[in-house]
Amino acid sequence: MSQVEQQIAHKIQEIASASTNRKVNIFSGSVVAGSVNTSELTCTVLLSIDDIKSPTECILLNSVTNSVDGLVLYPADNSNVLVAEVDGPGKYAIIRYGEITKAITTIGNTVFTISNSGYKIERGSINLTTIMRNILNHIMAITVTTSTGTSSVPVNISSFTSDLTDLNNLLV
User: Fold this and answer.
1) Which pLDDT tens digit goes with each residue over 18-76?
2) Where are the alpha helices (DSSP H) in the chain?
3) One-character DSSP codes across 88-104
């Protein structure tokens, strides 16, 4: 653990101990390659206290179990992390990430995902990528019929109106 990580761990222990009157165990470790379970929101970490042949499994990616809302960070394979003991002995959650591959924030039915491949914004069944593609497809399909050369409202104006409504509902 670097000096900065040691200072962070020490400060977290101080804060936690002051409010609970119990020591919070914090360990450094390395995420085992291929161990991130995206459906269970867990991973396996070789903690500084572990035998190299027996890494600790089922370490939480978020500190709140069964929570729908919140932020989940996905650690990169072999990245360094700090892990704290939560909810008693043998139950751990990552509290500091050295490197992540993805972050997902969920608030109600709105989900924002960021990864190396880009951004994804969803609200219920509506997603920004689809809306933007639809808008571009509608623009490409614009046809204006005039007998005098003067443009009129696009024939597919109702499609633009519908997409604008969806966009306004998504980006509040």
Assistant:
1) 666 667 788 999 999 999 999 999 999 999 888 878 899 999 998 676 677 889 999 99
2) 3-20, 128-140, 157-170
3) STT-EEEEEES-EEEEE
CATH class for the domain made up of 3-118? mainly beta
Residue 29 makes CB contacts below 8 A (sequence gap 6+) with 45, 46, 47, 48, 50, 55, 56, 80, 81, 82, 83
Q: Are strands 92-97 and 100-107 parallel, antiparallel or unpaired?
A: unpaired
Q: How far apart are the first and last CA of the chain?
A: 42
pTM of the model: 0.74
Instruction: Spell out the domain ranges in the chain.
Output: 3-118, 125-170
